[in-house]
Amino acid sequence: MKTETSPEKGSKRELITFSIGQQDFCMDIMLVREIRGWTKVTMLPHSPADVLGVMNLRGAVVPIVDLSARLGLGACKPSKRDVIIIAHIGNQTVGFLVTAVSDIVGISPEEIQPMPKVGGLDENGFVQGIIASGDRTLRVLDISELAAAMAAEPVEA
Amino acid sequence: MSLSVLAIDDSRTMRNLLRAALEEAGFLVTTAEDGADGIEKLEAANPDVIITDINMPVMDGFGLIEQVRQSEFAASVPILVLSTESSDALKSRARSIGATGWIVKPFNDIKLISAIRRVARV
Amino acid sequence: MASLNELRQIFFQECEEQLEELTDGLSELELLQPDHEPDPETINRMFRAVHSIKGGAASFSLDAITQYAHAFETILDELRSGKLTMSREIIPVFYRGADRLTDFIALGEAGSVPDVSELANDISEITALSSDSHQIGEVEFGDDCIAEFVPVALSFAADGADLSDTEHGNYSIKFKPTKALYSNGHEPVQLFRELETLGSVDISFSLGGAAAWDVNDPDISWHILLSSGCLESEVYEVFEFAHDLAEIQIEILKTEKPIFESSERPAPALSQLEINAGGLANAEEKETSPEKAKSAQKATVRVDLELVDELINMVGELVITQAVMTQSITESELSVSRQLATTLDDFKTLTRTIQERVMGIRAQSVKPLFQRMGRIVRETAQIAGKEVRFITEGEDTEVDRTVIERLVDPLTHILRNAIDHGLEHTDRRIEVGKVPNGSVKLSAAHRSGRVVIEVNDDGGGVNREKVLSSAIEKGLVSETAKLGDAEIDRLLFLPGFSTASAITNLSGRGVGMDVVNSEIRRLGGRVSIISTPGQGTTISISLPLTLAVLDGMVVNVANQTMVVPISAITETIRPEASKVHLIGPEARMISVRDLMLPIIDLGTIFGFEPERKLGQDGILLIVEDDKGDQFALAVDHILDQRQVVIKSLESNYGHVPYVAAATILGDGQIALIVDLDEITNEIPVAASVSPKPVRVSA
I need a surface site. Which of A81, C211, C220, C575 has the fewest CB within 10 A? Predict the structure, then answer.
């Protein structure tokens, strides 16, 4: 099911929050299929640096994206403690490697503020807005945009 | 109690069309693929009216009419022939061996149903 | 209840089957010896097929199909009844008729209507066969062209009874049924009820003078007074069915008032008549032969293709899961009991059997494909002005559905080639002492786990001299090259090669046999050619049974596990350092039996690691690409040979250079399947540095 990124006013969006390194992010839970532990992937030749490879998800071949690298936060070395968020976007199934998944939060659209233009950072194109919650700042990722960018990117080395 | 109709036609299209039309009218429908199949299903279908095609493999419509008329079970069940043929020769042959009526394909739902109601003995 | 649209779909599905039946009958007629009578059942089957199409088409108001089927059916009926005698000239007309009918049905399905004048021409072509010139006149065109198919409700009508619809009033009806009335399923009571719908009815009866009451021939007359304002025709309509099964007299009583004079009530005996009406068999016993007709028709179910694919996919998973499970149990430190080992074995067998069976669902007989090709042959022969006998063999051979669809173009091309270039013209054939008509045989068979489809013609064979000179002229081979016969024949598959000196209307449409070759390669198959001068050519296509699995060689390249399709591998060698030659700064070649083959290191291709040193470790896989060129692929180890289930990479990711697809191995890990054609097509090393290896295998 495809979820609109800008739901009607007043209705709360459910977001899954997770961390990459020390930074906090969240994404629409409607697109998330499951959370899995890290398992060894098969390298894809000539793939962009942030595509770690493909893994076997009950018989389907699913590419795994290093979200840290994708957002320009530097490539991370996957470890057994890392987790993969499997998302279904359009007809594509994609896994995102993150450090940890923390919570599910209900957020009304008004709480999401537009992303200030900091400039220069790769992540900005994928960030829909930010949520300030207590001492934390959550960035809302547009993963449809992330997945689309993966497919469109030239894969040849 | 709803009227039971045994519809016999070797064309799946026709069988489906007949079933659709007859079930719409609230009849209980049994279909058969040819005359022999029709005879086989005769007892189970216990029809009030039989509708049959003429040109069929294994046993054609004439064969079916003859067999039904000879059967103990359904000797006097009204039989309507449903055929694209409309020649007098075929019609009179059908009549001479015991057909009750002749309807020319393609059939008109309303006329078909009124014809069935007309010959049915219920 | 089925919607009209669904019913329509059923009709078109059935049309397909009927057309198959028709073409089957035609092939039977075609094979008939000149002075033999055709099996009446064959003609009957053909007649019924066309007849069913007509009936269905009329129900959906598909006039063109109805009219054409009617014309066709009329001729078949003449043949059936012996008015028309079977002759060889009829068959091509029938074939064209079947083709036209197919076209009209396809048009009808697409929701369009053929050109009326075209339809008229087509119909007159087929009706020209008729023995009865009146038949031709009966098929007319225009808005009311199929008057005879207009729904006529019930037409045992009083023939010629000229009913005046102006008269109405009260009627006196005398009705004396014959026994046939009862035996035909009529019942006077029904008729009377029917009359009651027209007005009030008063019924009396009188028994005849017969001494004894005979239930089989009730001598009874009814007199009905109908008081109604209805039309006379309406009264006749009631007795429409009973016409000539009873004496019926209908009189109009010109009185203003309804008459109720009769005090007699309807006879209580009616109900008894109902019961006793049966058992009147006046039909003599007729021989019917049901055993002959039900010609081995298997019951089938139509299933959504997506569902089947899903099932196949899931069974693929099952096979993998089973392998993973077995592997992890054997690798675990647990002691495996004998019982567990046996159970695991059983599980494996069962899983494999399920896989085989499920794969079988996708399989479809090549028969429809062959029939389609029959049409191509007829059309090509006509254009080429050659008489061709088309023979098919092994029509029941089953192949994956997708494979069948993708065989249409290559086979069309091969057949056109065979007729256009392969077969000689009649005068030439007579000159060399052959039968005047050329023949083309299309056959299919299962051979050692693969499907082999062959096109064989009895023409002149490949003109090797011409092929070779043409290849040299086009720079495809060097002038000094010494090629064997088989190698010359294979040149036909080189890209850009076309033997036709003048491009003909048929096969020379700018695509050559190389397109055939690459298309078959894409299906995981191979094409080969065997030609004998003066005697003909056989082109044979060998295909895997299904596209869902592939025979693969599992290799290790820079610690990555990869799969190379076995179909492309001709041999594997462990190279001796002395046979590896450095050409230029980068390119390396290996000499294999005097042939210099470029070496391509898979590790380098995929960017996994720097090139290994020459002659060190490594194994070379000699592969042949779709152009017939050979290469040596360097890998680290060969791990295994096995069937692998093909998994798409594209659906979730996209295209990966030099990778055809992925698969999942026994340990649950994904391995990539190497796309050899892409490697050899796109690696410039081979083409630019090395002279192309001219020795090509047959």
Answer: C211
